[in-house]
Automatic annotation (TrEMBL), chains A, B:
GO terms for molecular function: DNA binding. The keyword Secreted does not apply. The lineage of its organism: Bacteria, Bacillati, Actinomycetota, Actinomycetes, Micrococcales. CDD domains: HTH_LacI, PBP1_LacI-like. Transmembrane segments: none annotated. It holds the Pfam family LacI. Gene3D superfamilies: 3.40.50.2300, lambda repressor-like DNA-binding domains. SMART domains: HTH_LACI (SM00354). Keywords: DNA-binding, Transcription, Transcription regulation. This is LacI family DNA-binding transcriptional regulator. PROSITE patterns: HTH_LACI_2.
Amino acid sequence: MNARRPTISDVARTAGVAPSTASVVFSGKTPVSEATRAKVLAAANELGYLGPDPRAASLRRGRSGIVGVVSGGRLGSVFGDPVMRITMDALADAVAPIGAGLLLLREGSVVAGGPTLMTAPIDAAVLIGCSGLLREHLAGVRGRGIPVVVIEGDGGADVPRIALDNREAQRLAAEHVRDLGHTRVVAVTMPFRWGSDPGWLSPDDERATSVDVVADRLAGFRDVFPDAAAYAAVDSSIDAGAAVGRALFGGDGPRPTAVVAQSDLLAVGVLRAAEEAGLRVPEDVSITGFDGIVVDGLAPYELTTLVQPAWEKGRAAGETVVALLEGDTPDSQWFTSTFRRGNTTASVASDS
Amino acid sequence: MNARRPTISDVARTAGVAPSTASVVFSGKTPVSEATRAKVLAAANELGYLGPDPRAASLRRGRSGIVGVVSGGRLGSVFGDPVMRITMDALADAVAPIGAGLLLLREGSVVAGGPTLMTAPIDAAVLIGCSGLLREHLAGVRGRGIPVVVIEGDGGADVPRIALDNREAQRLAAEHVRDLGHTRVVAVTMPFRWGSDPGWLSPDDERATSVDVVADRLAGFRDVFPDAAAYAAVDSSIDAGAAVGRALFGGDGPRPTAVVAQSDLLAVGVLRAAEEAGLRVPEDVSITGFDGIVVDGLAPYELTTLVQPAWEKGRAAGETVVALLEGDTPDSQWFTSTFRRGNTTASVASDS
DNA sequence: TTGTATGCGTTATCAA
DNA sequence: TTGATAACGCATACAA
């Protein structure tokens, strides 16, 4: 016996119909008489045929039903951020109706040999929180005719973007802090480059910041505090924020009276470090976050932060992908964050 | 001009070589003289050819470089669990060397039309934390010759498993609690069915529990407390645990003196609810978790829990996939958890 | 080291 | 409603 798996031609032959007819029975794209449908199904059953081979179907159709999602860093750190999870969730929902799923791709391959934008059979790509370095790769994918959507970043002229008012929003937080009278203020940023070390941002670092979201939020901060110091965390997590906070509060130098963090997770970490250092929030130090996520166990604190529409961003990205695949030319979409005053900010203490 | 994208044949023709030669230049599977390589590359450049089409290559090779990862529930809730993130991260690392990436597939499609095990061009599938219901689908994929690996579950006779000693480990926790003198003990479980409602588990529910990991851990608990009540959470998260905790501690009935939770996140939620209810941990109520993850902001508590090797499990799953794709017949692997005593358990108070 | 020939399994197009 | 035909773009076995 032949160990070869049955193909749709085998089924057609057994059923006594043309391959194209058998194909149509499975795809349902054309009406088929009940009689032939039954014959074909019977033959398929007899031969153990389980339906069209997705690989062959992709070649023929020119569609694989796969959307590549490129993000910086490891899965663990990317999905550790609730905003990212929500965004991805909405994205997955939005592309599901066209039968598409998400293929996880990592910028700057962590492990050699992994799949890339150029080698994976993707129909479209979504870049999320990637560094600008990735733009070169974009040329390749786009040259192939693969649509690209960029979330929180700039993919170049005609790459639709899903953007957030990072700069304006972060400026709001900075202004809030300034209006409370703070002058010794420090910005805590997310990593400015994939895999960058934590530490104070030098002017060079700052100029070389390649992650748009980091650069934009920092710019908003700089609009208000042009000369303040900025400290980059190793990633956007509570742990990373706590590490930064220990550096800020543990030293002998003058302590900041306010910290403007680029994410809620970082802010919570800083807050924990402040508590560890015996500082009261907001009396001794004011802290702002960014994202507007719910951090469990934070009570009685409620972070002063900027609430961003993460779900909507993901949905919009997915819908943009769908539109592009249908040949439309969707516009970029800008979303706005909402300032939410919590109880982690207060006027600067007169004696501090 | 023809808008058609150049193919490798076009490149070969322009370079004045055979298609197979041009192919080899890109795949590097066979030595090519420097001269022809240069010719081919020049031609490719001239035509704007960007390398082999991954879809065509998959058909020809019979490999797409895609591993489907099936999990229950939404992305957000799946990746909300640190154990899952670590496992997926390790899995991604382990399959990267063969050029494979992870395609996210959801059990019980949340949204109609999404990709499925049968329609996605996958080379292999990894089931993780799925319900037993999925086993039917397994027949289909396996019939296609697609290797399957199951993490924390049973895929049937010759499906390699990556297993954890859930029952034995959970029994250890239960014994610990029993040895501390507790008799009013409640188990808090993860959802016993995808999308199941939270609430007390009836005997019927318990019999119908289709998620192996839930059933196994519950069995371990039952080995020690055959008649204790069990309460199912809506997912494995702090919030879900807190909701359960409020139900346990908020009522008028007799309060449990110990809670055996099926995950650390649930345990932390229960702990928070206990605090809310004005109970002291561990004086008034003892709590155990499962997983051994680091939950930030939990200090001064250190959960009494079972530490499981999440990374190793993910790696093992990935390596098993690779072995299967190479035609080997790898064995299942069993991993063990380690009991870790924290400060969330204590002897039952004499007056309680 | 290069070229020739073939088929991977399907589906779109068109004509019957 | 069905069937014949022709790609889809590539990579391999084998011969030269």
